[in-house]
Design brief:
The protein has helices at residues 9-18, 20-37, 39-42, 75-111, 113-127, 131-142, 146-172, 176-183, 188-224, 236-244, 251-279. It is an all-alpha fold. The chain crosses the membrane at residues 20-42, 87-111, 131-158, 250-275.
């Protein structure tokens, strides 16, 4: 008798690479990460090196491809070095959100009852606050710094992760194979780790790629307000804050980090969208 085998997961993951949008987004992010890691090698100047003879130098000035800021610092060098802080901040914030949200959603969905109600009321309370206002409040309480600001952003993102994980667990635990596992004596930790988590985690991982874009913008917002990366260390948000004062004299200084933020956020969003399509079980092979 012939049996139908389920579609291999590798085929669906391969769709991310076969889609030109996913390939372009992944390529851009890989190049950006490589530049950030090799920043001391590929940049001509130290990010904080000042040259008072080249203050607000225009783009194309010898030695300053994208010009310099009001302290004579190379914009290109600060842009590449700032990518380190901005990318690290995005992954840190999403990591905190997953570390908090996944266990909460899993516990609420699996145990149900009063535990589910208590967890969801806390989640609803946090979601009722405007995200950036709550992040600012938490950052101010923890003292302004890159790590503290991203911990606050992760706490703000955690409720949405918890809600999604809870919804997935509630759906998965009613599946036939979970009932079959229970009938064979699977309980507690074995049931959760072997059946619930592997089958509920995929949408959460796709959502995390979308949260990376939101975390990048949140880091830029907090650094713009002086609550993220502290001077003189560079980040794209702090570059925007510094360039804002000289918008009319040197508009390119504000345009360059703004384009970098927009392009990176778009790459994260497109990659998440392509991954969601590739992992959708309803998609034809």
């Amino acid at each position: 008798m012939t049996t139908l085998s389920p579609p291999r997961r590798e085929n669906r993951l391969w769709l991310v690479v076969r889609d030109w949008r996913g390939l372009a987004s992944a390529g851009y992010l890989v190049v950006l990460a490589a530049l950030a890691l090799l920043a001391p090698v590929v940049t001509a100047h130290e990010p904080n090196a000042q040259n008072f003879d080249a203050i607000l130098a225009p783009a194309g000035t010898p030695g300053y491809l994208l010009g310099s800021d009001d302290l004579g610092r190379d914009v290109l060098s600060r842009l590449i070095h700032g990518a380190q802080a901005s990318l690290l901040a995005s992954f840190l914030a999403v990591g905190v959100a997953l570390l908090i949200g996944i266990p909460l959603g899993l516990v609420a969905g699996y145990l149900g009852g009063i535990v589910d109600s208590a967890v969801m009321r806390v989640v609803d309370t946090l979601l009722s606050f405007p995200a950036i206002i709550l992040a600012i409040a938490i950052t101010a309480a923890l003292q302004p710094s890159l790590v503290n600001s991203m911990i606050s952003v992760g706490i703000v993102f955690a409720p949405s992760v918890a809600r999604l994980m809870r919804a997935q667990v509630l759906a998965v635990k009613e599946e036939t194979y979970v009932e079959a596992a229970r009938s064979f004596g699977s309980r507690g930790r074995h049931l959760v780790l072997r059946h619930l988590v592997p089958n509920a985690i995929q949408p959460v991982l796709v959502q995390s790629s979308l949260l990376l874009a939101h975390a990048l913008i949140a880091e830029a917002s907090l650094s713009f307000l002086g609550l993220g990366v502290q001077p003189p260390d560079p980040s794209w948000g702090s570059m925007l804050a510094r360039a804002y004062t000289f918008l009319y004299q040197a508009p390119l200084q504000m345009l360059v980090p703004g384009i970098a933020i927009a392009a990176t956020a778009l790459a994260f969003n497109v990659l998440g969208d392509v991954a969601q399509q590739a992992l959708d079980p309803r998609r034809n092979r």
